[in-house]
Design brief:
Blueprint lengths: L6 E6 L2 E4 L9 E7 L7 E7 L4 E8 L7 E5 L5 E5 L7 E8 L9 E6 L1 E5 L4 E7 L3 E6 L5 E8 L3 E7 L4 E6 L9 E9 L2
Antiparallel strand pairs: 1-8, 2-7, 3-6, 3-8, 4-5, 4-7, 9-16, 10-15, 11-14, 11-16, 12-13, 12-15
Length: 191
């Protein structure tokens, strides 16, 4: 996430903030991280209807300073930070367009959910998860196109990436359910 559309929000404790006007009404990519000893936090989205305001859980961060990614649906104009059963300490949320996702490199490894841009061209990739995990393909607007591999336990396997460009999401379970901590994972492109 390194373009002009990126907006950084930081704080301590539970909080709320508006999605910037120039980014509102679009699916966004959020990069989340906390403080060194933080237990993580949750992002909620606020949706206004005729007579009420509804808050919905969007996803969570990884623990500590590990960066994680998640999608923010277009209908949310205001976001909240909460700790669930934990006290929220330091939190950071960087919002940008989904097309600003970092490029999928030859070898990617982390312990939290991530979103990568993929330029296309059919390739194979070796995928390893130390815990449950999922790799999902999304289009460039952040709409799910299909699960490439998913397991409820540790695994190693090979997937074929699509010919068309898109977004590759690595998460603990299907994106939207598995944001935040994942456990050690690796995606290694072949050839």
């Amino acid at each position: 996430m390194h373009t002009e559309s990126r907006r950084l929000f930081s704080g301590r404790g539970e909080s709320e903030f508006d999605v910037p006007e120039d980014l509102s009404g679009r699916v966004l990519l959020a990069e989340l991280w906390g403080g060194l000893l933080g237990k993580g936090f949750y992002v909620t989205g606020q949706k206004a209807t005729k007579n009420s305001v509804r808050r919905e859980k969007v996803g969570g961060s990884a623990m500590g300073k590990r960066k994680s990614h998640l999608f923010i649906p277009a209908e949310y104009g205001r976001l909240g930070i909460t700790g669930g059963v934990h006290i929220v300490r330091t939190w950071n949320v960087a919002l940008s367009e989904v097309t600003d996702a970092p490029r999928l490199g030859e070898v990617e490894t982390a312990e939290a959910s991530r979103v990568f841009s993929y330029s296309g061209g059919s390739r194979q990739a070796d995928v390893t998860f130390s815990n449950r995990g999922c790799v999902t393909l999304f289009d460039l607007e952040g709409k799910e196109k299909g699960v490439l591999i998913s397991h409820d336990d540790k695994f190693h396997g090979t997937i074929t990436l699509p010919r068309k460009p898109g977004l590759i999401v690595v998460s603990a379970a299907r994106a939207g359910w598995g944001w935040g901590d994942v456990g050690r994972w690796e995606v290694k492109l072949r050839g």
